[in-house]
Amino acid sequence: MATEGEYESILCVKPDINVYRIPPRASNRGYRAADWKLEQPDWKGRMRVTARGKVAFIKLEDKSSGIPFKKLFGAPVDQYPGIAVETVSDSSRYFVIRIQDGNGRSAFIGIGFSDRGDAFDFNVALQDHFKWVKQENEISKEVQNQNAGPKLDLGFKEGQTITLNIGV
């Protein structure tokens, strides 16, 4: 998770997002947007995708006031693809996200974009963030491996001398 002192960066802002109550997932076929009431979203607003450290957050807000959707809930994303954000099997414009409250309870809701380009931007923002996370982890491992390896001692030992011949 994020540590104190890490700043929050904005990965993506989309002004039009639809939220849907969704039926449980069919065990073998995943989520399908066609099973939702697409003409009747349960809520409309805007979406901001932010990152703090290695965790991304999906924030659904009222378009004009910025008040969060379901004030008690948030949608932290610690890996993508993963359980926190899933694509649906029948459309590139709809996703299922897991929202959580502070007590560890979670629920799954559907989100949808009216514009395919907005859905693409959302997808790419998450992919790029977790590509960066992977690179950071690899760099950190390399630094640890370098520090763990044997040290090359190029210093002079006691009593050792060196002679330099400089032609004049």
From TrEMBL:
Q: Which CDD domains match?
A: PHear_NECAP
Pfam families documented for this protein: DUF1681
According to its UniProt entry, what is the function of this protein?
Answer: Involved in endocytosis.
Q: Does the keyword Nucleotidyltransferase apply?
A: no
User: Looking at the UniProt record for this protein, which Gene Ontology cellular component terms does it annotate, in alphabetical order?
Assistant: clathrin vesicle coat; plasma membrane
State the UniProt keywords alphabetically: Cell membrane, Cytoplasmic vesicle, Endocytosis, Membrane, Phosphoprotein, Protein transport, Repeat, Transport
Superkingdom, natural source: Eukaryota
Question: Where's it found, cell-wise?
Answer: Cell membrane; Cytoplasmic vesicle, Clathrin-coated vesicle membrane
Which protein, by its recorded name, is this?
Adaptin ear-binding coat-associated protein 1
Indicate the family of this protein: Belongs to the NECAP family.
Biological process terms from the Gene Ontology for this record are: endocytosis; protein transport
- Sorted alphabetically, which InterPro entries does this protein's record hold? NECAP_PHear, PH-like_dom_sf
